[in-house]
Amino acid sequence: MLTLIFATNNQNKVDEIRVVTKGQFNIITLKEAGIDIDIPEPHDTLEANASEKSSVIHQLTRQNVFSEDTGLEVESLNGEPGVKSARYGGEGRDFQANIDKLLKNLEGNKNRKAQFRTVVSLVLNEKEYLFEGICKGHIIEEQRGGKGFGYDPIFIPDGAGKTFAEMTMEEKNSFSHRKKAIAKLTDFLGELN
Ligand code: IMP
């Protein structure tokens, strides 16, 4: 079975992706690979940050690696917080501070349309491949639900009556940006076999 290192320190992302890939390939986390670094996200696009993460870990390990970078893009804020989603509310990468700032910036705004966009970068046998997944929805005015992470309590995907934070992981995955990007990755890997 193909083994891939998943270049992230976010255990929620690992859990979601392990559910989605259902053992089709062997995913090793950075922790399991004995790598303890804060991977840089210095660029101004999700694509460049995803590439940076996978190439940094590939250079360290020389193994096949994938990474992902995700942003919440709000229409009436010209796509913000976007690539800055993790540090929107300050350098502390605090989920609550990020939510508070976004709700404040949207106060009184009728256009609450938003989308999560995930870019996955795969480095396989020294070549890089990119995959994208988008989930459209809207931002509500007050947070709801205690599951998930990040902006989940304020985002309702189109076609759902509740926030990501009110959903089980399986329900979230039936809508999720990350699931869609990873499905493209698994299809690609399946075609190689
Ligand atoms: P990054 O991809 O780890 O840089 O994440 C960017 C920011 O978006 C972080 O603040 C995450 O919490 C948030 N984020 C990423 N994916 C999700 C998601 O599926 N739901 C809610 N927030 C997310």
Kindly describe this structure:
- With 193 residues, the protein is α/β, with parallel strands linked by helices.
- It has one domain: Maf protein (Alpha-Beta Complex).
- 31% of the residues lie in helices and 25% in strands.
- Strands 1, 2, 3, 4, 5, 6 and 7 form a seven-stranded mixed sheet that branches.
- Helix 1 crosses helix 5.
- The longest helix has 16 residues.
- The structure holds inosinic acid.
- Inosinic acid (IMP) binds next to strand 3 and helix 3.
Count of discrete domains: 1
List ligands, each type once. Answer: inosinic acid
Number of strands: 7
Alpha-carbon Rg, integer:
16 Å
Say what the CATH topology is.
Maf protein
Q: Structural class, from secondary structure content? A: alpha/beta
CATH-level-2 architecture = Alpha-Beta Complex
Subunit organisation of the chains: single chain
At a glance:
By secondary structure, this protein is an alpha/beta fold.
Reconstruct the topology from this structure.
Blueprint: E1 3-6, H1 11-21, E2 26-29, H2 46-61, E3 65-74, E4 81-82, H3 95-105, E5 113-124, E6 127-139, E7 155-157, H4 169-173, H5 177-192
Parallel strand pairs: 1-2, 1-3
Antiparallel strand pairs: 3-4, 3-5, 5-6, 6-7
Relevant terms:
193 residues; Maf protein; binds inosinic acid; 31% helix; 25% strand; 5 helices; alpha/beta; single chain
